[in-house]
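Hi there, hope your week has been kind to you so far. Thanks so much in advance, here it is.
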Amino acid sequence: MTDLSAIIKAYDVRGTVPDQLNEDVARAVGIAFARVLAEQGTGATAVVVAHDMRESGPGLVAAYAEGLRSERLDVVNVGLCSTDELYYASGILGLPGAMFTASHNPAQYNGIKHCYAGAKPVGQESGLARIREIAQGLLDDGVTIGSIAGGYTERDMLPAYAEHLRGLVDLSGIRPLKVVVDAGNGMGGHTVPAVLGDAVLPALPLDIIPMYFELDGSFPNHEANPLEPKNIVDLQAAVVKHGADLGLAFDGDADRCFVVDADGDPVSPSAITALVATRELVKHPGGTVIHNLITSRAVPEIVTENGGVPVRTRVGHSFIKAEMAKTDAIFGGEHSAHYYFRDFWGADTGMLAAMHVLAALGEQDKPLKELAARFERYAASGEINSTVTDQQAKLDEVKQAFAAEDQDELDGLTVTFADGSWINLRPSNTEPLLRLNVEAPSAERVAQLRDDVLAIVRG
């Protein structure tokens, strides 16, 4: 028996193929999404579907589409696609969408990211729990497909997606830049030539040096997760070797983008968030900018200094997107290199963030390291994971140890100290882990706080 609670979690569907996610499961989930759309009275008559470069994608999409069509919904299949290209299709066509991807997960995984029309997120509270319930019932009873009543069309959205992004950030007048791009054999190899190269639009003043652009869901070179330091080693070396101005690394479904400077040193996603926020605030003065609670406190400081309104949220794209909708925010950024734009239906797009970085760099003469330094004010630990048997007990111990300090529990436990240092300790939703982040005015203070907390967590 298939237990969908193991693969349908807070934000999406994700599991190993074929034991957890197979064509029967995809078909059931397709039927379930169609019924949720009907229950919610969305009036949807069609769903746009897409897949990344994983070998299992086309078969899963075909089964899922069959489920939708058996519920009298038309299917628009946009084929090979990055996740943000699927969001573009959902936004511009005004249709709900389903993207088949497991993002940065290893080759044996696949998954589904759903959205409502206009790229609005489908999370646990907003329909995903109901999708799981319906699909589980179908699988328990044995999925039977009625007559296929819905239509089916195929459509290439890549040129329109590239044109849309080029219309949001004009790179045509920047100084020439040499850029190494590591697509990690993921969908960046599909979208970068279209948006930043000359595959479908006129050439920009960018000399793109491609790395691992061949679409290959077995990830023969490295995992497509640029937040893991070992996965950007090749990019760092190539940037230095080619004397490039910067390097960009995309994850598997190319919705996240990670940046390294000319010396091959990583630029923190918090600095990118602050940089992009200042540019968006020029376009939308006084706008609201969302940041999750483990981005650097430099982000809300810089947003405020530039006339914007910073809003702090929990970690996770469903929380960011919900807060963006509630506050009509112009931009949002996360430590995980997800960047969200009001000009992009409130959805996340690593490509648009990368274009802002290229524009900011190319509009002036300083190297990226000098430009980024304006947005990096504090020392940080990065995320440190500890395996624990009782998450809550350890959180309580840390809470007690720092009882005299300012605390909040928006997401796990955040402790703020008089010198501006802070720690955040939050439980993983999917594993027996506690995740620690520390920021302070100096590296020494970071080390001290890190060691104090880990002594309790791992003691």
